[in-house]
Amino acid sequence: MRTKARHERLYRWELALLLGVGLAALLGVWLSGAQQGLADRVVRLHVIANSDSEEDQALKLRVRDRVLEAAEGLYDPEADLEAACRTLEDNLALLARVGEEEVRRWGYDYPVTASLEESWFPTKQYTDFALPAGEYTALKIVIGEGSGQNWWCVVFPPLCLGSVTESTEQAALAGGFSQGQVSLITGESEGYVVKFKAMELWEQCRQLFQ
Predict the structure, then answer these.
(1) Percentage of residues in the chain with pLDDT exceeding 70?
(2) How far apart are CA 134 and CA 125, in angstroms?
(3) Where do the DSSP E strands lie in the chain?
(4) Would you say 89 and 174 are in contact if contact means Cβ atoms under 8 Å apart?
(5) pLDDT band for position 177 (50/70/90)?
(6) Cβ 202 vs Cβ 194: under 8 Å
(7) CB-CB contact of 66 with 99 (8 Å)
(8) Mean pLDDT on 178-205
């Protein structure tokens, strides 16, 4: 009888474990799909400072603002992600030059480079919206040696504060977001922070097993 009881307990634990793994897999598929849906709509901005000195970090933010302003003026009002990426690729030299002009304006001689590449971003919460961790197309701006802290946001659609004249919701909808995606990134969808953290944990686990 004791052996049978132990077997029954073991069976229940195994069943619970299998159910847990199954639910985690289903959740992971949904989370990955939700993140990919957002990644298919945005181009992130990744600015890397020359160093972590107070002066270089302040300069990083000035270059950020100048690049956001310049990039926003390049897009056609009806641009989608593909068109935005083509526009950015065609104007990488211009954006690097704009960044360098801002650097020179503040009395520094650091070079600035601009590239468009796939990058992994952690979950990031801004003033009025958030984006989950995952792979995104990114405009990468490197100032000088690029050994300082990063700054992440969105260059398309123009969601970052200080770079838009409309609300985040308006900018996101104009950029091709669905109403559900807008609700997700702005927190109107209940538990969005938990969902985003779950996305990040799932991605970390997936990469570990790969």
Answers:
(1) 70
(2) 14
(3) 43-48, 112-121, 124-125, 130-131, 134-143, 150-156
(4) no
(5) confident
(6) no
(7) yes
(8) 68
Query: What is the model's pLDDT at position 205?
Result: 65
CA atoms within 13 A on the CB side of 102: 24
- pTM of the entire predicted model: 0.74
Question: Which pLDDT value is given to residue 21?
Answer: 43
> 7: part of which helix (H) or strand (E)?
helix 2-39
Angle between helices 179-186 and 2-39 (to 10 degrees): 110
| Residue 164 CB-density burial (10 A; 0-12 exposed, 13-18 middle, 19+ buried) | middle
| Residues 6+ positions from 142 with CB-CB distance below 8 Å | 48, 112, 113
Q: How confident is the model at residue 23, as a pLDDT?
A: 45
Position 172 scores a pLDDT of 82
Across 16-106, the runs of DSSP E, i.e. the strands, are: 43-48
CB atoms closer than 10 angstroms to residue 44 = 20
Please state, as a whole number, how many other Cβ atoms lie within 10 Å of the Cβ of residue 170: 13
At 30 the three-state DSSP class reads helix
